[in-house]
Amino acid sequence: MGRRRFVKLVSGRVASWPVLLFAVPALLLFTVRLLADAPGAIPVVVADFDYHDTSGEVADQRAEHTARVQVFVGMLRERLAEQGKYKVLQLDCDKVTCSAGSIGADDLVSAAVKADARLLVYGGIHKMSTLIQWGSVQVVDVQRKELLLNRLFSFRGDTDEAFRRAANFIGQTLHDLTPKS
């Protein structure tokens, strides 16, 4: 495809929708990144959350649960970055899943320190029955070696929407948290 044809496609009515589909998310990510890099932002890492299903349901839902927990953690990271109060850093682990259950709490804290984070957010979700899930979230100030938050929460449902609502709730809880200077 020649350059003129490409320019015509981009400037034409039909081609502008595909461009917008890529441009708008890129602009949002850029904006979130700028907000996350605000001066005085607290560096934080959010570890992967563990998931345990003891509901005894016959259907194998591991793939769905894995995806929902990943979305849950992703939403927490996005919510923290959007607030401008936190700078969300990447946690680097040797395992595929970087959670307290997969590498242990001490190694998770070491990975947070290595990432130059001030705060480490981690936790897990436990499916008790078809309708009820329990979660826990902990926040550690890795510089002061202090547990700032240890919260249990429950939510109803085993759907994408239920996980989104739980992530929004925990995101608000984390927004209200400020470590000591």
* Rg value: 20 Å
Low-confidence stretches: 3-36
Strand and helix order: HHEEHEHHEEEH
Ends: how far apart?
58 Å
The main sheet comes to: 6 strands, mixed
Task: Write a concise keyword list for the protein shown above.
Rossmann fold, 2 domains, 181 residues, alpha/beta, six-stranded mixed β-sheet
Describe this structure in words.
Mean pLDDT is 83; it is low at 3-36. The protein has 181 residues and is an alpha/beta fold. Helix 2 packs across helix 3 (62-83) and helix 3 runs parallel beside helix 6. The chain is built from 6 helices and 6 strands. The longest helix is centred in the first third of the chain and has 24 residues, at 13-36. The chain has 2 domains: 1-36; 41-175, Rossmann fold. Strands 1, 2, 3, 4, 5 and 6 form a 6-stranded mixed β-sheet that branches.
Write the layout of secondary structure elements.
Elements lengths: L2 H9 L1 H24 L5 E5 L3 E4 L8 H22 L2 E3 L11 H4 L1 H10 L4 E9 L4 E10 L4 E11 L3 H16 L6
Parallel strand pairs: 1-3, 1-4, 2-4
Antiparallel strand pairs: 4-5, 5-6
Short description:
This protein has 181 residues and is an alpha/beta fold. 47% of the residues lie in helices and 23% in strands. The protein has two domains: 1-36; 41-175, Rossmann fold (3-Layer(aba) Sandwich), CATH 3.40.50.
